[in-house]
Each structure stands twice: as C-alpha cells, then as structure tokens.
C-alpha cells in the first residue's frame, strides 16, 4: 500500500500542473468594473460564474492584490462586461497595469457601474459579500440587471 503523503507533489509542481489544467478549460473573458471616487475602474477576469437563480446572484473571483478589489465593499455596484469575440485587445488592456484603461474604450454608467458600449453580455451587481479564498477574494453579488447581445463571446483557453 502506498502512503498518499509520499506521492504528494511538491507545492510548486502542483501549482504549475493546476494552472496548466485550468488553462485547458475554456472560460468567457470579462471586464469587471466599478465607479469609485468619480472615475471608472476595471480589470479583466475569466473566473466568474452564475451562483444562484433564486435570488439571481453572480460570483467573481479577484486577486487579493487587485486594485479593483481595493475599491469594493459590501453595497458597491459592479458591472460584469462579458467581452465579444473581437475584443481581445480590450481584454489585454484591462489585464494590464495603469490608470488609462478606459481611454478610447466607449463606456457609460449603466445600472450604477461602467458598462462597455460593445460587449457580448452585461450583468450589474450589488456586492453582497466578500469572501477571502486563498490568494483571491470571491465577490458575491446580487444581480440588479442583465442583458445579452448576439455577438459571440471572447473565450480564454
């Protein structure tokens, strides 16, 4: 009989293997936004999910070091802009550092959060709970509004 602890992977090897495995699971790419201190803020994510239909809730996972996360609290309004297939450059811009992410990206306030004018789908949330989970924080949000277009979604795989 083999001892499971003897066969356990080195933590760095496990992390690399897990990242590789998750990279092989297709996920929609979104720009998550909020309006704070008179300005729009946003970041690219692929870790979000429908959480509940009754009541409608969504889950977004943000890195604990995220500048966007630092601007959120229970009651904050958040927008989830699911990107359209042709918006790969928008995804890259919002994934980067800097304060000019919205430069030349048409947007407007919708349902209390910055909404990109061109998108595949939109979900507006009010933050209900922030749950620390490892190196990320789960943003649990009550859905306030949602819509979809006929655009194909941008996916990360």
Which percent range fits the helix content? 10-25%
Mean pLDDT across residues: 92
Estimated share of beta-strand residues: over 45%
Radius of gyration: 17 Å
Low-confidence stretches: none
Count up the helices.
Answer: 4
Can you summarize the main beta sheet?
7 strands, antiparallel
Terminal Cα span: 38 Å
Q: What's the overall geometry?
A: globular
Helix and strand run: HHEEEEEHEHEEEEE
Spatial order of the strands forming the largest sheet: 3-2-6-9-10-5-4
Would you report the number of β strands?
Answer: 11
The chain-level structural class is: alpha+beta
Word description of this protein:
It is a single chain. With 157 residues, the protein is α+β, with helices and mostly antiparallel strands. Helices cover 18% and strands 46% of the residues. The protein is globular and about 50 Å long. Strand 9 (121-133) and strand 10 form a beta hairpin.
Structure summarized in a few sentences:
The protein has 157 residues and is an alpha+beta fold. 18% of the residues lie in helices and 46% in strands. It is globular, with a radius of gyration of 17 Å.
Element layout with pairings:
Elements lengths: L3 H4 L3 H13 L3 E2 L1 E7 L2 E7 L2 E6 L2 E8 L3 H4 L6 E6 L5 H8 L11 E4 L2 E4 L4 E13 L2 E13 L6 E2 L1
Antiparallel strand pairs: 1-11, 2-3, 2-6, 4-5, 5-10, 6-9, 7-8, 9-10
């Amino acid at each position: 009989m083999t001892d499971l602890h003897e066969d356990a992977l080195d933590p760095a090897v496990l992390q690399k293997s897990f990242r590789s495995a998750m990279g092989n699971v297709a996920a929609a790419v979104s720009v998550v936004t909020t309006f704070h201190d008179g300005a729009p803020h946003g970041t690219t994510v692929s870790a979000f999910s429908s959480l509940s239909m009754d009541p409608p809730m969504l889950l977004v996972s943000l890195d604990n070091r995220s500048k966007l996360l630092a601007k959120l609290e229970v009651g904050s309004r958040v927008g989830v802009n699911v990107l359209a297939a042709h918006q790969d450059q928008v995804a890259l811009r919002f994934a980067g550092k800097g304060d000019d992410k919205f430069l030349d990206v048409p947007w407007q306030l919708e349902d209390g959060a910055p909404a990109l004018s061109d998108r595949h789908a939109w979900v507006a949330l009010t933050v209900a709970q922030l749950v620390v989970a490892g190196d990320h924080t789960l943003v649990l949000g009550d859905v306030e509004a949602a819509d979809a277009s006929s655009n194909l979604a941008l996916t990360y795989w």
